[in-house]
Structures are given as C-alpha cells and as structure tokens.
Write a structure and sequence with these properties.
The structure holds 2 protein chains of 2 kinds. Helix content of chain A is about 35%, strand content about 25%. Chain B is an all-alpha fold. Chain B is built from 11 helices and no strands. In chain B, helix 4 packs across helix 5, helix 5 packs across helix 7 and helix 9 packs across helix 11. The chains are: A alpha/beta, B mainly alpha.
Chain lengths: ~260, ~240
C-alpha cells in the first residue's frame, strides 16, 4: 500500500483513465461548473453535449489544467492531478487537445507543427520527429501536405493536422473542444471520420460537440450538461433510444431540427 | 562650384572614415542594448506582477516623454555630480540605448500581443513549459511582426546618433562640421557626410530585407530562387502584409 495520499488510486480505478469528482469552477461571479462528476474508462469515447455556456469547454480545460478547478478532484490514471499545477506540463504530455480554431502554429509547416513538441518536450531528433510527422499525416489522410503552411490549408485539413499534432505526443486521452464548429459543412465529415477512426482504434476520447451523427456513431457514453451541471449521463444506445430526461430531450429536439 | 575632387578627398580622409566608423559603432552598440532593454521591458510587462508593470510604465513614460538630446546632455553632465563619471562615448551609448529601449519595448509588446492567446494555449496543451512556448511559438511569430517597425527604428537610430555631437563625440556630423568650418567648404564636407549616411542606411536596409526573408518561412522555402536585390528592397518597404 502506498503511503502517498495523492498517488493512491481511488477504488475501482483499473478501467478508469479519468475520474472527475465534484468539480467547481468560478470566473468572478460566474459559476461555471457546479459540482460536476464524470468517469471516462480506458478506450471509451464520451461525448459532452449541451447548450453553449453550459460549461462543457471549461470542464475539458479542467482536465488538462488549463483552467484548474477551484474545488473537487480530477484523477488521471489514478493520480489526483487537480492541484498539481507545477507538474502540469508533464501531465499534459499524456492528454492531447484539439481546439475549435485549430490553433496551428502559423510560422511552422504542417510537419513542423507536429514535430515541435516531440522534439522540445520528448527530446526526439529532428529526423525521428519528421518520420513521426509523416506517419501521422498519413494517418489523418493528408500525407501530401507535410510542407504546407497553415494558411495554405483548408479548415478541415488544418484540423486534421491539429489532431496529428496532438497524437504525436502519444497521448492516453484526447480532448476535443468543438473540433468542427469552425468548419464549413463540407469539411466536417473528414474531421469526424478521423476522430471516429481513432475512437474505433481504442483512443480514449472526451469530445465536446454538437454533431449528433458523430455521437451516435462513435460515442460509448453521452453526457448532457446545462448551466454548469451534468444533468444526464447515459450509454449512447440508451440516450439515442429515447431514455433521456426531459431537458436533454428538449435540447436534442432543438439541435436536430 | 562644387569640387568633386574635394568631396572624394573628404570621403577617403582618415577623419571622415573614423567619424563614420564611430557613428556606426555608436548606432550598433546603442541598438544592441536598446533591443535588449526593450525585450526585458516587454517581457516584464507580460508578467502579472504589479510592481514590475509599474516600473515599465514609468520607464517608457520617462524616456518617451523627454527629448533624446535632453537625455544625452543629462547623462553626460548631471551624472558626474552624483559621482558617476562616464566618457562621452559611454554616455552617448547609454542615453541612446535607454531611449531606444522605451520605443523597442512598445514595438515588441505590440508584436507579442499580436500572437493570439490560443497559440500559447495550444503550446501549453502539448506539454511545453511557459518559457518553451515563449521561445518556440510566441517569439518567432512576434519577430516577423516587429521586424518592419524595428527596421525603421534602426535607421532612425543611425540618424539620431548625430545628436551626440553635442557632447563632443567625434562622430560623422561633428567631423564634417569641423572640416567645413576650417576650410569654408560646407557643400563638399556635408556632401561627403551625406554620402556616408546614405551608404550606412543602405547597408541597414539590405540587412533588414535579408532578415525579413529569413523570418518568412515561405520565402525561406523558396530560398533557391534568385531575386534581384532591388526587388528585395522594394518588397521590404511594402511590409504591410505581415500577418
């Protein structure tokens, strides 16, 4: 038994990669998260839905400590990381994140975007990092764009490079923050396909999205948030089978019509 | 009539050459320390610690708010009463560098601010530390944005350096003026000085064009293609297309 209270796994952790317990977050007077709890098992894809301003993105940012929780706990691989800010860079290596606006580094080519963190954080050689970048660009189906700069790529291509960039750190968990919200409709598909493939390969994912088609196709579990609270957590089948509470149903009706 | 022989004679004379060299030396040293001071001030403003922010505000306020000529005379003539005795050259460089720092800080800050917050967030999310994000993501992008205004500052400094003649530093303009008053050949002596100034600014413009090409990753990718120098200088002056 470990004597270290922080390192001790919580009960029944084996399958759980991420465990969020009673997380609270305020921005000044705005109460963004009101006691949110959520589990993500290894290999699972969890889709977070809810109206804008409901706290979905904030919850995502609590996980990789971009917005540390005020109270409550976040366990990652059984370790309590909630207040481990000094260790944040180390923790973030294992948690990839994809943003609504892609946020590719504008001064670097697609390949260099992918190579930067493996070289600077993991100490890979330039040649090894380049091999990795080429491999990952193949995986996201744009191997021909290695030398292109972000402003020479379509939105869908940029987002796929961003996914490859996150994968380059060999993360154990992927966070997607509305990855297709800034895309033109005809490009949404190519990004969702890559994400669905990753989920199918067993990449643990926590996805904030309004794409119900993706949720239906790739999610194991749907979490519905409203006003800083998690209102409903249900297996995907049950959720889309209609076994949801009134508020979630109303939200679904709204976005599906 | 202007005597070309005399202009050439002035240009090749040791006094003029030495003066031009001193002008260049003052400019380059003051720029070096000015950019460093500006970078330190700009990074201090990035921190959220109030005393540091107040200090930078005070610094920029003071050095932008008084004439450079005043600062040069002040440092050379007033500091000795406090027991700090500096040579005219050192006083000149300090005054110009401190003044330059205030303007550089503003330019650099605008460059740092122009790099969107999301770029830093993306770097942090990959596991980079704050200083790595600054070094590999923010500074390279800011550098491209600040290079054109910095080029202006550098050329401006070359000309501002003439002010240090008031504390008897033997730079180019003072040499020319002295030569002219000795021979009454104002036209020839000042033309010779003008030729030197234009030659030096031309060198600075070429350097700026080379640096801009170096910092533009896409132009670097096409580095193979040969472009005429004039072409490069022309694109260097139409620098509005920095993103």
């Amino acid at each position: 038994m470990s004597a270290d209270p922080i390192a001790r796994p919580t009960p029944a952790t084996e399958a759980r990669l991420l465990e969020i317990i009673g997380v609270e977050k305020r921005f000044g007077h705005f109460h963004a998260l009101k006691g949110c709890s959520l589990d993500v098992a290894r290999g699972e894809t969890v889709v977070l839905i809810g109206p804008s301003g409901s706290g979905k993105s904030t919850l995502l940012r609590c996980v990789n400590l971009l917005e540390p929780a005020d109270s409550g706990d976040v366990f990652f691989e059984g370790a309590n990381i909630t207040r481990d800010l000094g260790n944040a860079p180390r923790i973030r290596r294992d948690i990839g994140m994809v943003f609504q606006n892609f946020e590719l580094f504008q001064h670097l080519s697609a390949a260099e975007n992918i190579m930067l963190a493996p070289m600077k954080v993991l100490g890979l050689s330039r040649a090894d990092a380049h091999d990795l970048a080429v491999e990952l660009l193949g995986k996201v189906r744009i191997p021909e764009k290695a030398e292109a700069f972000p402003d020479e790529l379509s939105g869908g291509q940029q987002q796929r490079v961003a996914i490859a960039r996150a994968l380059a750190m060999k993360p154990k968990l992927m966070l997607y923050d509305e990855p297709t919200s800034a895309l033109d409709p005809e490009m949404i598909r190519e990004v969702l396909d890559v994400m669905a493939d990753l989920s199918a390969e067993g990449m643990t994912s926590l996805v904030v999205t309004h794409e119900m088609g993706f949720a239906r196709r790739a999610a194991d579990k749907i979490v519905f948030m409203e006003d800083g609270r998690i209102v409903e957590t249900a297996p995907s089948d049950a959720f889309f089978g209609g076994e949801v509470n009134e508020r979630a149903r109303r939200f679904l009706d709204q976005i599906l019509h | 009539m202007m005597s070309f022989d005399m202009v050439v004679e002035y240009i090749v004379s040791p006094a003029f050459f030495h003066g031009a060299l001193l002008t260049l030396l003052i400019t380059v040293t003051a720029l070096l320390f000015g950019v460093l001071a500006g970078l330190v001030i700009a990074l201090m403003q990035e921190t959220r610690w109030r005393p540091l922010q107040l200090f930078t505000l005070f610094y920029v306020w003071m050095f932008r708010g008084t004439p450079v000529l005043f600062q040069i005379i002040f440092i050379y003539n007033v500091l000795p009463t406090f027991g700090i005795r500096l040579s005219a050259f050192v006083s000149a460089v300090i005054a110009l560098a401190l003044n330059e720092g205030a303007y550089m800080a503003e330019i650099l800050r605008s460059g740092l601010d122009a790099v969107k917050k999301g770029q830093r967030t993306a770097g942090l999310a990959l596991g980079l530390t704050r200083s790595q994000v600054m070094r590999w993501i923010v500074l390279p992008q800011a550098a491209r944005i600040v290079l054109p205004p910095m080029g202006n500052q550098m050329i401006g400094m070359l000309k501002t350096s003439a002010l240090v003649s008031v504390i008897a530093v033997e730079e180019l303009l003072l040499v020319a003026n002295q030569a002219a008053s000795a021979s009454f050949r104002y036209l020839e002596a000042l033309t010779a000085a003008g030729v030197y100034y234009l030659a030096l600014t031309t060198i600075f413009m070429i350097l700026q064009a080379l640096m801009e090409r170096n910092l533009d990753p896409k132009k670097r990718r096409r580095a193979g293609e040969k472009r005429p120098l004039l072409d490069r200088l022309l694109t260097a002056t139409e620098s509005a297309d920095v993103r």
